[in-house]
Structures are given as C-alpha cells and as structure tokens.
Amino acid sequence: MMSRGSAIHKTQMNRLKDGRGQGYGKDYKPFIQASDNKAPSEGYLIRELGWKTGRIHHTLSKEECRYLMVLTWSDKVVDIREQYPLTPIERSIEIAEQLNIRHANKDNVPILTTTDFMITIETEKGLEDVVRTVKIPSD
User: Fold this and answer.
1) Residue 121 pairs with which residues in a beta bridge?
2) Among residues 99, 108, 126, which one has the least CA distance to residue 6?
3) What's 10-132's CATH class?
C-alpha cells in the first residue's frame, strides 16, 4: 500500500503543471494527448476538431472516437472533456486500496487515473458532470 500524499509520477506532474486535465470548453487540455509518447491505445489515435467545444479532441480508440461523435450530436451535452484525470489522487488511491487494486507504476510511484470522458450535460436541475468510460466489448 502507498502512503497518502506521495508524489505522483514526474511525467504526470509536468502534465498538470502544463494545464492538462484542466479547463472547460475550448480551454480544456486533455491529460493524455494523441501525440504523447506511449499513449495507451490500440493503435487508433485520433485528433478531431469538435464543433461543439471549438477545440481538438484526442481519442485513443475507435470506440472512444465513435462515442465522441454521439456526444457531439446530443443536444443535452454542453461540454466534452476527454482523457480526464480523476483527482484528487488521494481519493483514487483510497478507492484502489479498498478494492485491492494497484495504483502505482512498477516503481511503486502513484499514478493519476484517467477516465475517457467527463461530460457536462444540461438537466432539469441545471448543469451536471457525468463520468463515462468506453471499453471494447469482449467475447
């Protein structure tokens, strides 16, 4: 188990300092970008101009790209933020410990977990953020 407050991986810390995983609308910068070395993907990296957000979206699989298109055409979707970091890291470490899931790299340095999409939708009660993860179906 890792101690709370441990420093996160240097590469991830630099991404946060560069403003990745932060912002809203056209000002949002994905935490993981298609141009990153070692971007986790199935060899299907797409950069797509989003007319709803006015910025380039970075998807890491065909399924993510397809879901982005569905979100783009939904009238209820106000904002789409892909490759979104789940922070604070202390909360995701706590959840990982409860589930007995490793939350570090091979050197036992904590890593930020990301979700495929953080979506802001318009509801009867106002704006609401919804987290979505897109996975490839398995047989």
Assistant:
1) 77, 128
2) 108
3) alpha beta
